[in-house]
Amino acid sequence: MTPKLVTTPIYYVNDRAHIGHAYTSIAADTLVRWHRLRGESVCLLTGTDEHGQKIAKAAVDRAQDPQSFTDEVSQTFRDLTRTLNLGPHDFIRTTEPRHREQVIALWNRLVERGAIYLGTYSGWYAIRDEAFYSESDTHIVDGKRVAKASGAEVEWLSEPSYFFNLSKWRDRLLHHYAEHPEFIQPEGRRNEVIALVKAGLDDLSVSRISVKWGIPVPSDPKHTVYVWLDALTNYISGWPDWQRHNGSAPVTHIIGKDILKFHAVFWPAFLLAAGLPLPRQIVAHGWWTQEGRKISKSLGNTISPLALIEQYGVDPVRYYLLREVPFGEDGDFKQANLIQRADTELANELGNLAHRVLSILQRQHGGVLPDPIPFDAWEEHPLLENAELLPAKIAYVLNNRVAFNEALDEIVGVVRQANQWIVQTAPWAIKDDPVKRGEVLRALYEALRAVAICLQPFIPTSASALLDQLAVPGDARTLAALREPPPKGTILPPPQPVFRKLGVAKAA
Ligand code: MSP
């Protein structure tokens, strides 16, 4: 089934965006663009998570009131969507009235269905994670008690609180995981969640009386709705269509592995209890370190995605992040590797190939496309056989497993094959047989067209510049249009390089 909505997590506004945030957004955007390329209608939802103790504390630290503080930082995340070149999307803030309404509606629904009761929470709380921890989930490090899972410092809390009856949903959740193996991806993360839920679930505290910056509990406003119940509801408030689906809603949540429990356990349990449809899929990616070190404010080593993009351009950054690590695994962000990847695979292997083919077409064929090779004949063609299969191969790795790096492997594979083919066939040296030369060049042109069409979700700007170079009209850039080679006589523009080299040219 098709995802009709793809979401990023909503970002905490206590800090400026770093490369980890950029990664989640780029991954979600690429998935959305892939589905659009297939002709499906898909929405992208992103936004900011603005309530709770962590944000209130950050505002106090900057001597600002929380509303103007969140307005300011939220705007930087909104600006980032443009810098990252996200396609059409909606941006939800948890401080918006449309969001507040949905949180209140969900809360009331949970109360009506008997899923919420009043009690007292006594236990540990980590402000950094906005999460509750039992004693056994914590330990002492350097004289401080911290959560084992995240290393975040915890504080003791004992206060009246509303609880959500999470423990009741254990078996229903396990049943859902078993019935829908694609629900949590990748596989390893799915197994972690299953083990955690099997071990048993405690009821969850879902309100705080010591927190004021948030949405008051409708019937008891001394309490503030727990920030994660508030934040997760963005997936409903930002996409009202959710409510219209019965059963499993066509929603894919792209998240980092650190927030898997909230998305794969708490969120589906809230939805089950409220009688609302569950998302189709939750996909958790790994974590980036930066030049071998944890990305953290205290280390002062956070590279701003804005600075990187200003230096290298958005597409090399998108390409590197999606290409470098198998989706789901951790990665180490190294600028030297970004340069290396972009220069080798984009500028040399693809860029030079395109420039070579287009220059020969210009010089030896007057910039006019030779006879087309009908799409039906591609499967018999030594070069085009793999180009023809590209969409199906990408669909296979992206649709369920969301394996961006494998999709790019397939594309790079076709580029490499075309490079071998051009060396073997040496079209520049075919002087006296223009028909044969035309056939060879047309095959190379088609391989480039297939590659450029399929690269659009990953590196939209460069792929579209390449399609311009190939004289592919705007309405012929979908997967379906791949089947219809441009006619003989199509006039190609004078060739221009599409990718610039990022690194300093090395001596031969
Ligand atoms: N506000 C919550 C999410 C609520 S969703 C209902 C949150 N925000 S966050 O700003 O801390 O993180 C947002 C996303 O960025 C998460 O998916 C997180 O995994 C991702 N990353 C933050 N640091 C990261 C790295 N160092 N590497 C990769 N992704 C990282 O959690």
In short:
45% of the residues lie in helices and 16% in strands. It is an alpha/beta fold and 508 residues long. The strands form 5 sheets. Strands 1, 2, 3, 4, 10, 14 and 15 form a 7-stranded parallel sheet that branches. Strands 6-5-9-11 form a 4-stranded antiparallel sheet, with helices on one face.
Molecular structure report:
The protein is α/β, with parallel strands linked by helices and 508 residues long. Helices cover 45% and strands 16% of the residues. The chain is built from 16 helices and 18 strands. The protein has helices at 19-37, 53-61, 66-83, 97-112, 170-179, 187-198, 227-232, 234-237, 260-274, 305-312, 314-324, 335-365, 384-398, 404-425, 434-455, 460-469, and strands at 5-7, 11-12, 43-49, 90-93, 116-126, 131-133, 138-141, 144-147, 155-164, 184-185, 204-205, 207-208, 224-225, 249-256, 279-285, 288-290, 293-294, 331-333. Strands 1, 2, 3, 4, 10, 14 and 15 form a seven-stranded parallel β-sheet that branches. Strands 6-5-9-11 form a four-stranded antiparallel β-sheet, with helices on one face. Helix 14 runs antiparallel to helix 15 (434-455). It is elongated, with a radius of gyration of 26 Å. The mean pLDDT is 94. 5'-O-[(L-methionyl)-sulphamoyl]adenosine binds at residues 9-12, 20-21, 23-24, 49, 231-232, 234, 255-256, 258-259, 287-288, 295.
